[in-house]
Model the fold of this input.
Amino acid sequence: MSEAREMAYVCPYCGKAFEITTYTTVNTRDDPDLRDRCLSGDIFRHTCPHCHTQFMVQPHMVYTDMDHRFILWLSDVELPPSVKAYAQPLAAAGFRLRRCSTIEEFTEKIQVFEDGMDDILVEIAKYDCFIEFIDNRKGNPADITSIEYQSTKNDVMKINIRTDDKGMSFHIPVNLLEEEIKAEADLYSIDEAEIPLVNSAWVISLFTQAQGNA
Done:
């Protein structure tokens, strides 16, 4: 069952207080409409009743998808040991468990897991696309505003790189990514019970360690 709570909030723009509704848990089987609001980001979007400015609020949330067998913890801080102890039987039962530090990571992870993809493959693909984008002088790293997973169809993954004034799409065969992981299996291994962050910072840290610069 999904759970919501009312909380006092001060508008970051006009400074006036009001109440907002935030969700602490979302269960997509019980509340499929909340799944749509999470994926679009609308569940985090609020409007001040005083100045009518829209803004995003990122609460701590547990998102459970029993059908696709994954659970996400949206939290910008490390999870306490009590939560990780609770995660052990879920990992043993085959659930994919992840912490997401931002709303962007959270919404992308939903799409990735609903597509039946391995998010490690996705992060490697995003990193490889970034390197190709820079090496081929298609743009400056400082100009990149986002690197996003789009979809996977017919075993080809689509990654979008966006800058302020343009965008570029990359199409990567999934089998090439799988071969890359197989060749460095120890490097890319994770412990589901630790509820790991698997994001761009994680990938960069792996390559830094591999180069002996950690």
Q: What stands out?
A: The helical segments are 32-40, 81-92, 103-114, 119-135, 174-183, 185-188, 200-210. The radius of gyration is 19 Å. The longest helix spans residues 119-135.
